[in-house]
Amino acid sequence: MAAELVEAKNMVMSFRVSDLQMLLGFVGRSKSGLKHELVTRALQLVQFDCSPEVFKKIKELYETRYAKKGTEAITQAPPQPITSHAPESLSIHPSYDHGVSTPRTSLTTPNIDYPSLYGKHVNGLSRLPPKVITKPEVRLVKLPFYDVVDELLKPTELVAQNNEKLQDSPCVFVLSPRQVDLIKNSRDLHPGTKSVQVVLRICYTDTSCPQEDQYPPNIAVKVNHNYCSVPGYYPSNKPGVEPKRPCRPINLTNLMYLSSASNRVTVTWGNYGKNYSVGLYLVRQRTSSELLQRLKTIGVKHPELCKTLVREKLRLDPDSEIATTGVRVSLICPLVKMRLTVPCRAETCAHLQCFDAVFYLQMNEKKPTWTCPVCDKPALYDQLIIDGLLSKILTECKDADEIEFLADGSWCPIKAEKERSSSPVCPILVLGSQDTMAKLPLPSSTVSSENGKPGPDVVDLTLDSSSSSSSSSDEDEDEEEERPPQKRRCFEKGLLSAC
Questions:
Q1: Cα of 436 vs its chain's centroid, Å
Q2: 148-172 b/e with 16+ CB inside 10 Å = b?
Q3: What is the value of pTM for the model shown?
Q4: What's the domain range around 12?
């Protein structure tokens, strides 16, 4: 019975307005209102009052609709191009999308004249049944901090309905009881925010490669008649530079009906020539500590493999004129200038230098850029590894902040050189007698009066025993002996540094 109930819901969600009105009229319920109101009534009918007669009627309407669609596709020549539907076309549910992609045709009916289809026209191609052309789907990039639990709405293009600049595109969906329980029973990341969330993601309509989140201009999101907050712009400190907007998944959980009632999400967007697609997902948001633990579990590279990589980096190239015998690696994280705790780098990086995984994940949790701080190249989470060799070195080398890898894969610490004194004291050779040397003051004790810098020591070499006057009196000699010895200086030319 549960399988039939799910099948009935899927078929009802694919009905058009006329089908919904016929179903509601069959059970005597009101047929007036907008499409999302009719869908809500029909789903409530299936949920609470799905009798065998009602289920039979739903199946009959479903088969009649797609039988007509298949017949029209065959009889029309050439087939009409696929056009975009109204805004209600966003109300698509992935659980029945597989049924829509293979509509039933009347090729199985016995009254078709196959020879007339294949034998009476040139090359037998002019009236072949049209093939169901499946367009490539828009894919969004995988976000490390969001694990997808369910896909509520596949990426669907926003289609303008008129020439107005502002467009409204609504979609309607219902959460299953399992999905409701997952949200209610999930833990709180912080007050008011559950770890299991319903998020809206918007990107460019481009099927060539997975797309990053990108908001259209003038975006506004309304959930069940209440506007949802959308991330604002980063302030720009540079003049003339437009502020950037962080395009992230928009959390709709707080405004959702966590019951069997249908939820209506309306995206208001600016129609300025670019095409955008929206998707709805049930996700489980992760924290940086959870991603770090996951990386430690599955992303550690064995020390021997890392040593092999070192040898490969330092392997001598016979065509190269310069032989590399070693490479230096810092044990300081380039992000926070602190000693590494969990050395990490991307497998796509060509360098051996690592950064700290703890701070790298915390920074990307706040502002996701996933750029290597060493080489500025992309370093996505799925490409990160923990260097087992450098982790081992960090535990063994406590007194050095830098090491050198040698060509054989071994390593040695590089201790920091002691800083030289700004005023080194050098021995000085003085040209003069021993008496003169004894009277010379130490170089460090002589300070010039200008700028407080050491001045040159000067000794008067003109003074000599032979130059004393023979006519000096004995009284003068007695007075001279009583006086304290005069400070004598040597000329700068008489000094010779031994440094």
A1: 76
A2: ebbbbbbbbebbbeeeeeebebbbb
A3: 0.58
A4: 2-124
